[in-house]
Amino acid sequence: MTRAKAERRLADWEQFAASLFDGYEFGLDDYRNDLDGRRLLDDAALDDAQRRRLDVADAVVRAATDAAAVCVWGSQVAASERFEPDRHWFYFRVPKQPGDELAADLKRLR
Questions:
Q1: Whole-model pTM?
Q2: What residues of the chain score a pLDDT lower than 70?
Q3: Phi, then psi, of 108 in degrees rounded to 5
Q4: pLDDT at 67
Q5: What's the rounded Cα separation, in Å, for the pair 43 and 65?
Q6: How many CB atoms lie within 10 A of CB 87?
Q7: Structural domain of 34
Q8: Residue 72's closest CA among 88, 48, 50, 51?
Q9: Strand residues in 14-95 grouped as ranges (E)
Q10: pLDDT per position as a tens digit, 67-78
Q11: How far is it, in rounded angstroms, from Cα 52 to Cα 73?
């Protein structure tokens, strides 16, 4: 990932984190997409300042979400992709204030 792309992804993650306190207004597909952006940051070559920003945004996401009973991709995808709750923690969290669409989508997860 280029430095510019990593910076854009980091800025997107920061914006996502900040938006969670207002309630997540989109559905599960959008939520997963936002979380996939975070996963890509794990492999990005971030400098020290970017790494600190990522840590701050991650803390905000943790504060604005609750632990989920299952991975937001579902149990089958989590197993096939080898998503681990410790390493891929963001896939195992849901907003404390999900909008109606996301709340309905999350109820169907298994």
A1: 0.92
A2: 110
A3: -90, -5
A4: 96
A5: 23
A6: 11
A7: 3-107
A8: 88
A9: 65-67, 93-95
A10: 998 999 999 999
A11: 28
